[in-house]
Structures are given as structure tokens and as C-alpha cells.
């Protein structure tokens, strides 16, 4: 409720005014929607012929179309999962080398991170698909997409994890060293697990980005969800309807994922708040 | 290296087109994003609804789908623009959602006392937002807005992939696909071109950030 500080708690008059204004705005929005629908109808965009295959289960092509689109969606999810898993592994390795290694090595990692962060992900994908075959590395198209996405996202995940490790209180590593752990043990059993947990919301948000970016597979002709949609449009001639449905699917999946991120964030903050109170309660015992 | 030097004019005009796309899309998205942020904190529920649904739609939908919709859906409705404007407007609409969220977080970070003081001297919602809260909010959001803008510069390559002729990405495609040059040197040139835009932009935003920072 931080926003309500911007305006007074409405009195009876302000409430009435707000009601009329809301009514006006709502009516304007409805009018705009109605106008859009009428325009769509006039141009023959609301016919069962255009929408039926996408939303009507009794339509003859419904099953075939969704089977076709489903294959694409499955490929999208597979590529996203694979790219995310690889990015996590490589990102963790990069974050650890940047924190622990010798100075010259660290600078090399910083260079790679800054370079990959500065280039567009679509270029990274195109680069992988064109340059790797030239170098004699022939892979299925899906792998070029995975490699491009991983190159771009692993450095971002490395930065997220590094921020997570650096934000931990010094006492964590000091205590671990004090009980005789080695450097590797400190990193893997004390620092990394905590960094992963505190950065979980940011990592899930990055998963949304990866999922959206798989649609860039079209530049290298990979048949993911959007590309399958494109192909179906050539057959059914319904760009508006098909892209609308594709957008809805993406929005639903990604919105669900970002809700998961928000939910974990709440849970984590509640848990750490609980941890803080127990510490505070314990403090007098030491005195 | 030879390929890059031989085709330097192509690269340079490509960079100019990319910059042009970014300039228009950046200005437009800042404008729309700020208005939307105003919507999202306004006292009228329908306006808040518009702001929230706009942000939800454009943040969760890939830019590719937005661009496809504009490029292939709009002509069906009889709306025809040059391709350049479809790309630029699509990029601006997509980016505006992220701009809105950055500015809204800035509005939330302005101490409540500021808005309370504005209200107590009799300013209404519009006045206290535009003359007290937003000027302070914009200063605090320079770093997140900066990363949104840099992400937009990188996303302009996707607009290029749709065949907005003559931008930096299109230069790479022309050289590799149409003229059959080796991909490694050509694309290295494209990467350098993008870095020549994003790195100075990052430095510029860093300077701006130090200049306008609010000390609290």
C-alpha cells in the first residue's frame, strides 16, 4: 500500500468523483474493445474458419494442428530446460573462478563475461549456427540454439551467483574456516548453497528470459513453438488468430513461472526473518 | 579482418540504422513507460488495470511474437506502415513494459514523507506525481533504466532479423548468406559493432548515474 501515499484517503465527494471517472475510463475501454472487435469482424477475422482450428476441439483440423504445435512447444521447453541447466553449471563455474582464482585468470573471466553480456543473444545464436559448422563442428540445429542461449545466459547467471555469494555475511566463511574447513569445502558446503537459495527468485526470472528467447530459433530455422505456428499459418492463413494464441500460451507459462519466483521470494524472506528473531532471542544468553 | 575493412561502409550504415531504431524506440518507450507507471499508481482502478495488464502481456510475451503480430497481423487489418516503423514501434511497446516497472520501483523508493508533504501543501495526485515524486523517482532509477535501455539496444538485433533492411544484423546476414563470405570474420565485425554501441552507452549511463544521484 505504498502507493496510497500519493493521494488522500477519499472522502464521500472524492469517492463519487473517482467512481464517475472510473466509470468513464471503463466505458472508454469497453468502447475501444468493441470498436476493435467490430473492425475485426468487418475484415472477416472472427470467422470460425480462422479461429476454429485453434480453439474449437470439434473442428476437423484441431487435433492435427495442436499435435503439430505441441511438438513445437515441447521442443521449446526442452531447449529452454537444457540451456538453463547448462547455463547453471557453466555460470557456477565462472562465478567460482571469478571469486577464487589468480588475478590474471580472473581478468580473463571478467573479459569473457563483459563481452558476452554486451552482444545480442540473437547474434550469439546466429554466431553458433554459422561459425561452428565452418570450424567443422556439425550438430543438430537444436544444439546451436542451446549453445547460443547458454553462452549468453551463463554469464548472467554467473553474475547473479557472484552477487549472491558476495552478499553473504563474512561471518559465514570465517566460521567455516574456523572449524577447519578447506577452501573448497567452504565454497561448496557453506557459501554456494546459501547463494543459490537467496538468488533463487532471480534465477527463476532468468528462466523466463530463456524461455522467451527460445523463440529466436526462427533465425536459424529451428522448429520450436513460434516457428511451428508460422508454418501452420501458411496452411491456414490466420496470422492474427495464431499469433494471438501463441502469445497467450507464452504469457500463461511465463506468468506462472514469475509467480513461482515471487512465491519463493516471499517464502525465503519469511524464513530469514524467522531466523533473525531466533538469533535475537539467543543473544542475551551470551551476555 | 580483410572482410570487415573491405565492407566498412556497409557496417557503418548498419550501425547508423541500428542507432536510429534505438533512438526512436528508446524515446517512445520512455514516454509510454512513464505514462504507464503513472497509470499503475493512479487512484482509478481501471487505469491501474490497464497498466498492470500491459506490463503482464509485454513482459511475458517474446519480442519475436510481438513483432510477428505487428508485421503479419496488422496488414490483415489494413494497417500498413513501412517495415522500419513496425519494428521500431514493436520494440518500443515491448520495452515500455520494462521501463514502466523500473520507474514504478523508483516511485516506491521515494520516501513517503515527500508525497505526504506534497499533499499537505494542497497538491492533487497529478501535481504531486509530476512535480514532486517523479522527478526524484527518475533520478533513482537511472541504473535500472540504463540496463533496460542497453537490453533494448541488444533487442534491436531481433528487429534487424525481421529484415528491417540495412541495420547491423542485416549487414551480417547480407555478407554471410547473400555474398557467401566466411561467417567468423563477418560476425566478429557485427559483434564489434554492437560492442561499440553498448559499451559507450554503458559508460555514458554510469556517468549520468553519478551526476544525478540523490544523496539519502
UniProtKB/TrEMBL annotation, chain A:
A Gene Ontology biological process term: amino acid transport
Subcellular location: Cell membrane
GO cellular component, one term: ATP-binding cassette (ABC) transporter complex
Keyword list, A-Z: Cell membrane, Membrane, Transmembrane, Transmembrane helix, Transport
Main location: membrane
Bilayer-crossing regions: 18-38, 76-96, 108-129, 141-165, 186-209, 242-262
ABC transmembrane type-1 domain sequence ranges: 73-261
Parts forming coiled coils: none
Short name of one Pfam family: BPD_transp_1
InterPro entries associated with the record: AA_ABC_transptr_permease_3TM, ArtM/GltK/GlnP/TcyL/YhdX-like, MetI-like, MetI-like_sf
Domain of life: Bacteria
CDD domains named in the record: TM_PBP2
Gene3D superfamilies referenced in this protein's UniProt entry, alphabetically: MetI-like (1.10.3720.10)
UniProt topology in membrane: Multi-pass membrane protein
A GO molecular-function annotation: transmembrane transporter activity
UniProt record similarity statement: Belongs to the binding-protein-dependent transport system permease family.
NCBIfam families reported in the protein's UniProt record: HEQRo_perm_3TM
PANTHER family documented for this protein: AMINO ACID ABC TRANSPORTER PERMEASE, MEMBRANE COMPONENT OF AMINO ACID ABC TRANSPORTER
Protein name: Glutamate transport system permease protein
Automatic annotation (TrEMBL), chain B:
Transmembrane segments: 12-39, 51-71, 83-103, 157-176, 182-206
Domain of life: Bacteria
Localization of this protein: Cell membrane
Protein's UniProt keywords contain Transmembrane: yes
Major subcellular location class: membrane
Keywords: Amino-acid transport, Cell membrane, Membrane, Transmembrane, Transmembrane helix, Transport
InterPro entries for the chain: AA_ABC_transptr_permease_3TM, ArtM/GltK/GlnP/TcyL/YhdX-like, MetI-like, MetI-like_sf
CDD domains, sorted: TM_PBP2
GO biological process, one term: amino acid transport
Positions of the ABC transmembrane type-1 domain: 15-205
PANTHER family from the UniProt entry: AMINO-ACID ABC TRANSPORTER PERMEASE PROTEIN YHDX-RELATED, MEMBRANE COMPONENT OF AMINO ACID ABC TRANSPORTER
UniProt record similarity statement: Belongs to the binding-protein-dependent transport system permease family. HisMQ subfamily.
Protein name: Glutamate transport system permease protein
Organism (species): Halosaccharopolyspora lacisalsi
Amino acid at each position: 500500500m505504498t502507493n496510497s501515499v500519493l493521494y488522500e484517503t477519499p472522502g464521500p465527494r472524492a469517492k463519487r468523483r473517482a467512481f464517475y471517472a472510473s466509470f468513464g475510463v471503463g466505458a472508454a475501454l469497453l468502447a475501444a474493445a468493441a470498436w476493435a472487435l467490430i473492425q475485426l469482424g468487418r475484415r472477416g477475422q472472427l470467422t470460425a474458419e480462422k479461429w476454429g482450428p485453434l480453439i474449437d476441439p470439434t473442428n476437423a483440423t484441431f487435433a492435427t494442428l495442436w499435435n503439430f504445435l505441441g511438438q513445437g512447444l515441447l521442443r521449446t521447453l526442452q531447449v529452454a530446460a537444457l540451456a538453463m541447466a547448462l547455463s547453471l553449471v557453466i555460470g557456477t563455474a565462472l562465478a567460482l573462478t571469478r571469486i577464487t582464482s589468480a588475478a590474471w585468470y580472473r581478468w580473463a573471466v571478467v573479459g569473457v563475461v563483459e563481452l558476452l553480456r554486451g552482444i545480442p543473444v540473437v547474434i550469439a545464436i546466429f554466431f553458433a549456427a554459422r561459425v561452428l559448422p565452418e570450424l567443422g563442428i556439425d550438430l543438430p540445429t537444436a544444439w546451436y540454439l542451446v549453445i547460443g542461449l547458454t553462452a549468453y545466459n551463463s554469464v548472467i547467471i554467473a553474475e547473479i551467483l557472484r552477487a549472491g555469494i558476495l552478499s553473504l555475511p563474512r561471518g559465514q566463511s570465517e566460521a567455516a574456516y574456523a572449524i577447519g574447513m578447506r577452501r573448497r569445502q567452504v565454497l561448496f558446503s557453506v557459501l554456494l548453497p546459501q547463494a543459490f537459495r537467496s538468488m533463487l527468485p532471480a534465477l527463476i526470472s532468468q528462466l523466463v528470459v530463456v524461455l522467451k528467447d527460445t523463440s529466436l530459433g526462427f533465425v536459424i530455422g529451428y522448429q520450436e513453438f513460434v516457428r511451428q505456428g508460422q508454418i501452420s499459418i501458411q496452411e491456414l492463413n490466420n496470422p492474427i488468430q495464431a499469433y494471438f494464441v501463441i502469445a497467450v500460451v507464452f504469457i500463461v507459462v511465463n506468468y506462472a513461472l514469475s509467480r513461482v519466483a515471487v512465491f519463493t521470494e516471499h517464502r525465503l524472506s519469511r524464513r530469514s526473518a524467522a531466523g533473525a528473531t531466533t538469533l535475537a532471542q539467543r543473544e542475551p544468553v551470551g551476555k | 579482418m580483410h572482410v570487415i575493412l573491405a565492407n566498412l561502409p556497409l557496417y557503418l550504415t548498419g550501425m547508423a540504422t541500428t542507432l536510429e531504431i534505438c533512438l526512436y524506440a528508446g524515446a517512445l518507450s520512455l514516454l509510454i513507460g512513464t505514462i504507464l507507471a503513472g497509470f499503475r499508481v493512479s487512484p482509478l482502478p481501471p487505469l491501474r488495470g490497464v497498466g498492470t495488464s500491459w506490463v503482464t502481456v509485454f513482459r511475458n510475451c517474446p519480442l519475436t511474437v510481438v513483432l510477428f503480430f505487428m508485421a503479419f497481423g496488422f496488414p490483415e487489418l489494413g494497417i500498413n506502415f513501412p517495415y522500419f516503423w513496425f519494428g521500431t514501434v514493436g520494440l518500443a511497446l515491448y520495452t515500455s513494459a520494462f521501463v514502466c516497472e523500473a520507474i514504478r520501483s523508483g516511485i516506491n523508493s521515494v520516501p513517503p514523507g515527500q508525497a505526504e508533504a506534497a499533499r499537505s501543501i494542497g497538491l492533487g495526485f497529478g501535481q504531486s506525481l509530476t512535480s514532486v515524486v517523479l522527478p526524484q523517482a527518475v533520478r533513482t532509477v537511472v541504473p535500472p533504466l540504463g540496463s533496460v535501455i542497453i537490453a533494448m539496444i541488444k533487442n534491436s538485433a531481433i528487429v534487424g532479423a525481421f529484415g528491417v533492411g540495412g541495420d547491423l544484423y542485416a549487414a551480417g546476414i547480407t555478407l554471410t548468406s547473400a555474398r557467401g563470405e566466411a561467417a567468423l570474420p563477418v560476425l566478429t565485425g557485427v559483434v564489434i559493432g554492437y560492442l561499440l554501441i553498448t559499451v559507450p552507452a554503458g559508460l555514458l549511463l554510469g556517468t549520468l548515474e553519478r551526476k544525478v544521484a540523490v544523496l539519502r
